[in-house]
Amino acid sequence: MKRFRRHGQESQRERIKQELYGFNKTVEHGFPHQPSALGFSPSLQLLAIGTRSGAIKLYGGPGVEFMGLHDENAAVTQVHFLPHQVELVTLLDDNSLHMWTLRAHHGVSELLEIGRFTLTGPPGAPPSVTRVTAVLAHSSGDLLLLGTEGGHVFIVKVPGFRELEERNISLEKVTNSVPEEYGGRRSLEHVESLQENPVNPRQVLIGYGRGLMVVWDLDSQSAVKHIPATQQLESVWWTEDGGHVLSSHSDGSYCRWKVAGDDPQSEQEKSEVPYGHFPCKAISKIIQLPTEQGPPFLFLSGGMPRASYGDRHCISVIHSKTHVALDFTSRIIDFFVIRDGPDHTGEPSALVVLVEEELVVIDLQTEGWPVIQTPYLVPLHCSAITCSHHVSAIPLKLWERVLSAGALQNTHYSKKPWPMTGGQNLAPDPPQRDLLLTGHEDGTVRFWDASGVCLYPMYKLSTAGVFLTDSDPNDNLNQGTEGEWPPFRKVQGVGVGCFDPYSDDPRLGIQKIHLCKYSGYLTVAGTAGQILVLELNDEAAEQTVEATVADLLQGQEGFRWKGHTRLEVREEPVTFPPGFQPFALVQCQPPAVVTALTLHSEWKLVTFGTSHGFGLYDYQQKNNVLVRCTLNPSDQLAMEGPLSRVKSIKKSLRQSFRRIRRSRVSLRKHHVNNAAKLQQANARLEAELAEMELAPVQRKIEPRSPDDSFTGLVRTLYFADTFLSDSSHNTPSLWAGTNGGSVFAYQLRLPPVERRGEDPVTAHPAKEIQLMHRAPVVGILVLDGHGSPLPEPLEVAHDLARSPDMQGSHSLLVISEEQFKVFTLPKVSAKMKLKLTAIDGSRVRRVGVAWFGSTRTDDYGESGLTVLTNQGDLHVVSLPGVKLQVQYPCIRREDVSGIASCVFTKHGQGFYLISPSEFERFSLSARCVVEPRSLVEVSSQTPSSTLPRAPPDGASVEPVLQEIQKSLEVDQTVLCRDSIVCVFATGRSWRMGRVLSLEGRC
Amino acid sequence: MNKNHRVPSNRSLGAVEVKSKFGAEFRRFSLDRSKPGRFDEFYRLLQHMHRIPNVDLLVGYADVHGDLLPINNDDNYRKAISVADPVLRLFLQRKEPQEDERCGEGDRGVLSQAASPVKSLFRRMSDRVARIGKGITDPRACSSPPSSPLSSPSLPLALEAACTGRSRKLKFSTGMAQQHHQSPSDSEEADYSAFGLDSLTRPKKTVLAAMLLRPDANRKKPLVIISLPRDFRPVSSIIDVDILPETHRRVRLYKHGQEKPLGFYIRDGSSVRVTPQGLEKVPGIFISRMVPGGLAESTGLLAVNDEVLEVNGIEVQGKSLDQVTDMMIANSHNLIVTVKPANQRNNIVRSGGGGAASGSSGHSSDSGTSFYGYSSPGIAVATTPADIIQNFHPEELESDEDDEDLVIEVDGEAMPIPRTSSASCTIPFIPRYMPHLDLRTTNGALASHNRSGSLGTLSTADRGLEGRSLEEEGTVITL
């Protein structure tokens, strides 16, 4: 009976677990690592980016995001949307073509792969025959033209990938239909470009690598015209009126050819080398777009003079008299232009450039062509991310103040809205305002709006101004001088065009951040032992930052710090812009990297720790309350600083090089002597190799000893108002945990509020715990009488948390890398524990406290610990019972930087870096999930968009169609908030049925 | 610890349960205790029960000590019935005709299979004797209460059986074991000489018989009854011998907080496993290196290239090298590794030249534990005997030492976290805690700055120096 009941309880517990926990990787924030291809659908208003790792990401309006991954681990080389449809085709490095579609499922679109295809040539043909170099998605929507390295063009029917062999355009057919002097003996080389005639979709321009271009008629299957260019071809553009073709070439020139008329051979109208005289690099892409009045826009990528500016990554925009060479900080992958108008055939409105490290959008309709701030794809890695900190549920007041401070920094952006509008964002508004703070190597802290699907930059704080650094901030602001040619314009801004991997001074790097969301106090700590306390101020202010030195060694002898020196503080007052302004600075001595940092805004105390010890700083009175050395005198590494370790690496490297050289020398000598000795040497080498194989990686089994390195390193610091020394009076306390498994507890005495400014704060040592297993202490937490974690400072004062239970007995939870252990308070005795490492060999790397709400009822929830292990697994451990609840694999265990970058939120979500520039967001909570929910629909509008392209018979269909459209649009506008995208294609009557059926589904 | 003597309360019952094993097959039946009958009737009954009417058998039974004793006449048959408590466990073996000894290689496999129980018994026995040769004894066997009515009658038998094989066995321990195992069809396998002491069942008593098998030098000495030992502690033991396959060995290393390193390395490797698909190469974890003078080496129970199968009862298959390393380190205070020894012939003796000679390397005694005696750590280093404990109880593991985190109450009393009554357990902390203490004591500035009462005084020397400050601050350290 008893057993039966327990079984029932267990199954009930299982049900509750399902209501509380659920693991999802929801969205990737930031900029894709190593982008390799760009595609754009004007009709869907969606942008697609393919990456070298085979990922494909689609972006529309803010919040509309899709992501897919090819099974093959091959780079995406080309992305093409099928015109006016929701399908897109990707070409991978391995010559495979993949068809993707956005399929609506439960009201939300999903990106699905629906087909794959690889061209197969005739038996025995070299692979180059079918190696795809150019792809044209024909505007009819059901043809794909594939130009290959062998010079053939294959025609494939989509979406089934059915080869239409009889319509293939072989090299022979082409050479037969052009005059002898162009074809004949000379190879035309690969197909470089395929372009459709904008006014006659039955005509296709085939550009061959050697320069020859041929206008091919798909119906008559013959060449109508040829363009006899002689330079190596880079790209081709057919002007919108169909009258001209622009070709760009590898020598930095571009030509305009007239193709209207009946003459089978086109004439060259113009040939120009824009950055002329000296040899230039190739113009890799050319686009020309008309404007309603006045001259057209011309966009050229590359073409810079090889010798002087060959290393620049430039796109030149030429419009009338304006000529600007936009100078990007990284390699250009591709670009396109967004056009105005209901069917996106009007004025060019924005230039979208994908460079290797960011996406830049330039407003072409505002004077000076300013940059438009991107709502997504922001480069998180302008400077390398060194740490991150997440604050949930920001009060509106603070949120607005941070936003307004950020707005003042972003005045140079265009006021225009984001030009990409595809899809509808159906995700519910985020329930709260969340802030993600990232610390960077250059000493900046960036504030991101992490409430929703888009990680949006809010504000950037720089701490470098407090210190004297070698570089002058004005150094890199040398804008192009008057009359310079080419007319460079650096594309630079905050978040956009700002990718700068070089940091001025590595000591400025931010290592720890703590923000109090109620008081607006922020503390940041850095690589050179600097701890800054900052306050949010809406006005600019000039002030001197007072520095206090904390000597963590406390006169410890035998110490020699060989690491970097302390940062020098500016003596003179510094003007700080509105936002977070530093008012206090602590500098640790020795200036080792700060490893733990906590702020208590109610007590106005900051505590910090390094590998040498920890300190407590009163930022109201601006003095040190406590300094404690945790060093173990036998720990030479911590004593000397990071340099000694570097030296040892250097030494071992040198040794291994010597060994290699020795073996080489001996080999060579033998070689000179005779063959027998060579054999001998070979045998010995083999034996050595075998030995190396016999002695693989091995691990020493040795328990931790106090002599291990960095046992004194402070891993965690914690403030708690609890029963430290007697069970009737709770007092403020400070807890510190070290790498060597020690916990130090101090009782704090704070003067009454009215005397807080004068009377000193004191700290008395109260307890020390040495964990038997000596594993590093990674977290300390006090649980109240109900077993729930103590609230954050000021949380109760702001009525945002239930005041902790001070009646029952508190308990102390010490989380080491190996186990979770609960002790009673005030008498510290072990109550219960959960062993982790002893059971499955994984160790705690990151731990956070989270509240898990139930999906079933709003009023039920549990506190739990969210844990990330060194194996990359996520665990949830219940509180206060420390029982393992769920376990999910999340990060590859080899991905050390991903595991190290993980940060948890208070509601069971988390972030980790999947590349230097991307955060993956995951959720452990079943209730609190932030994921993109968006719908992309194929719908139609007035078919006027098809007018220029419509064949003569389309005109008669139009009025009927418009009628149908109008009636349908009534429903549409009710259904959709955002602008509806047109998918209507050619205007042929048979397509009507398709459009109607699509409409019916909407 | 003396839970091993099961009181034969059922003996008064009329029936004797018999569990008879032949090859891989078991038969169960019962006999009337009061009327056991004659041996030849019993013999035919066995042949009938196992349906092997025409097979010549050797009949053996396991006595209370787990020793395998023969049944071949009416007397020892009756004895076996009388001591069954309540189960009589029989082991039947095919009596091999002489000519089979010289059969070819092909037949040998079959033969050795048939003879496998004997062989395994024999091997265990020889191992045991080898250990005895090294002077390892189990004092618990000696300390078994003489009041047990069963131990004494069986003793002569065990002694007799053991003595018959003695000369041979002593040879094994000096390096001959290998040779004997290479000839599995040797006649002695099918001989009653195989019987004797064994580790079949409740082996904590088996060494009683082994005690009598000491090398000759020791033999003259009268049996010394050793009381519960207090002067030594075990540093390692083989456990769970009865539940593990013979090819595996479960070794427990006791760290006891001492400074001696565990001292071994592990590596990745591959081993061959039998799977439903046939033999398959699977990744495994192996011992790659022993640190000279380390605990692992000095036990002689682990060796290079032994495959690690489990760590503290958890299988390591599918775990990475780093995971297994972390598991071992996390359990280092009480590490139990199950290995598949690379050398399957000699499952216990492996360090040193083998045999009695290696007894000099400090494998002097087996031990219980005394924490009180741990005043000089040198003893523990010097004495590194192997101890065999069977019926290992996992709950013993849970009374582990990692609960004993050291808590120091700066303004109250300092104490180890309770749970174990043995306060002296924390003494081993002292050497390790010293550095911190040194730091504090040398660090007067710090102490005077913000610390009341540095408690850096655990060793008596320090206590003498800082006695005053202790008094002043009222810091009491209870260990």
Automatic annotation (TrEMBL), chain A:
<keyword id="KW-0268">Exocytosis</keyword>
<keyword id="KW-0175">Coiled coil</keyword>
<dbReference type="GO" id="GO:0006887">
    <property type="term" value="P:exocytosis"/>
</dbReference>
<dbReference type="InterPro" id="IPR001680">
    <property type="entry name" value="WD40_rpt"/>
</dbReference>
<dbReference type="InterPro" id="IPR013577">
    <property type="entry name" value="LLGL2"/>
</dbReference>
<dbReference type="GO" id="GO:0005886">
    <property type="term" value="C:plasma membrane"/>
</dbReference>
<keyword id="KW-0853">WD repeat</keyword>
<dbReference type="GO" id="GO:0006893">
    <property type="term" value="P:Golgi to plasma membrane transport"/>
</dbReference>
<keyword id="KW-0597">Phosphoprotein</keyword>
<dbReference type="InterPro" id="IPR036322">
    <property type="entry name" value="WD40_repeat_dom_sf"/>
</dbReference>
<keyword id="KW-0963">Cytoplasm</keyword>
<dbReference type="GO" id="GO:0032878">
    <property type="term" value="P:regulation of establishment or maintenance of cell polarity"/>
</dbReference>
<dbReference type="GO" id="GO:0045159">
    <property type="term" value="F:myosin II binding"/>
</dbReference>
<feature type="coiled-coil region">
    <location>
        <begin position="668"/>
        <end position="695"/>
    </location>
</feature>
<protein>
    <recommendedName>
        <fullName>LLGL scribble cell polarity complex component 2</fullName>
    </recommendedName>
</protein>
<dbReference type="Pfam" id="PF08366">
    <property type="entry name" value="LLGL"/>
</dbReference>
<keyword id="KW-0131">Cell cycle</keyword>
<dbReference type="GO" id="GO:0005096">
    <property type="term" value="F:GTPase activator activity"/>
</dbReference>
<dbReference type="GO" id="GO:0008593">
    <property type="term" value="P:regulation of Notch signaling pathway"/>
</dbReference>
<dbReference type="GO" id="GO:0030864">
    <property type="term" value="C:cortical actin cytoskeleton"/>
</dbReference>
<keyword id="KW-0677">Repeat</keyword>
<feature type="domain" description="Lethal giant larvae homologue 2">
    <location>
        <begin position="272"/>
        <end position="370"/>
    </location>
</feature>
UniProtKB/TrEMBL annotation, chain B:
<keyword id="KW-0796">Tight junction</keyword>
<feature type="domain" description="PB1">
    <location>
        <begin position="15"/>
        <end position="95"/>
    </location>
</feature>
<keyword id="KW-0132">Cell division</keyword>
<keyword id="KW-0131">Cell cycle</keyword>
<dbReference type="Pfam" id="PF00595">
    <property type="entry name" value="PDZ"/>
</dbReference>
<dbReference type="InterPro" id="IPR051741">
    <property type="entry name" value="PAR6_homolog"/>
</dbReference>
<keyword id="KW-0472">Membrane</keyword>
<dbReference type="GO" id="GO:0005938">
    <property type="term" value="C:cell cortex"/>
</dbReference>
<dbReference type="GO" id="GO:0005923">
    <property type="term" value="C:bicellular tight junction"/>
</dbReference>
<dbReference type="InterPro" id="IPR001478">
    <property type="entry name" value="PDZ"/>
</dbReference>
<feature type="domain" description="PDZ">
    <location>
        <begin position="250"/>
        <end position="343"/>
    </location>
</feature>
<keyword id="KW-0965">Cell junction</keyword>
<protein>
    <submittedName>
        <fullName>Par-6 partitioning defective 6 homolog beta (C. elegans)</fullName>
    </submittedName>
</protein>
<dbReference type="InterPro" id="IPR000270">
    <property type="entry name" value="PB1_dom"/>
</dbReference>
<dbReference type="GO" id="GO:0007163">
    <property type="term" value="P:establishment or maintenance of cell polarity"/>
</dbReference>
<feature type="region of interest" description="Disordered">
    <location>
        <begin position="347"/>
        <end position="369"/>
    </location>
</feature>
<dbReference type="GO" id="GO:0007098">
    <property type="term" value="P:centrosome cycle"/>
</dbReference>
<dbReference type="InterPro" id="IPR036034">
    <property type="entry name" value="PDZ_sf"/>
</dbReference>
<keyword id="KW-0963">Cytoplasm</keyword>
<dbReference type="GO" id="GO:0005634">
    <property type="term" value="C:nucleus"/>
</dbReference>
<dbReference type="GO" id="GO:0060341">
    <property type="term" value="P:regulation of cellular localization"/>
</dbReference>
<dbReference type="GO" id="GO:0016324">
    <property type="term" value="C:apical plasma membrane"/>
</dbReference>
